[in-house]
Amino acid sequence: MATITTSLPDELIQKLSEHAKTLDMPKNKLIETALRLYLDHLKRATYVKSYKAAGQDQDILSIAEEGMEEYLKQLEDETR
């Protein structure tokens, strides 16, 4: 495990200390948990952005529509 040193605003340090005490959790574990959650949030935001962009791409929409037509045809064939 690596060690880092950073500077944070006093107000943030105070809030960190208060929450760590309330949760009975070491500050480094609280920071680790918060950072993991935030990085996961960024990853999800990237996915949302890419799906929104794909939703505007006519080539992607055409491929999806063709795939849906084939899927519906398969469903119809199976129900006969």
Describe the structure in brief.
This is Ribbon-helix-helix CopG family protein. It contains three helices and no strands. The chain has about 80 residues and is mainly α.
Question: Could you describe the 3D structure shown?
Answer:
This protein is mainly α and 80 residues long. The protein has a domain at 43-80. It has 3 helices and no strands. The longest helix has 30 residues, at 27-56.
SSE layout:
Layout: H1 10-23, H2 27-56, H3 58-79
Protein name: Ribbon-helix-helix CopG family protein
GO biological process, one term: regulation of DNA-templated transcription
Organism: Cecembia rubra
Notable characteristics:
Ribbon_hlx_hlx, CopG, Arc_rbn_hlx_hlx, Ribbon-helix-helix CopG family protein, mainly alpha, 3 helices
Radius of gyration: 24 Å
What number is the mean pLDDT?
87
Query: Could you describe the largest sheet, including whether it forms a barrel?
Result: none
Put simply, the count of helices is: 3
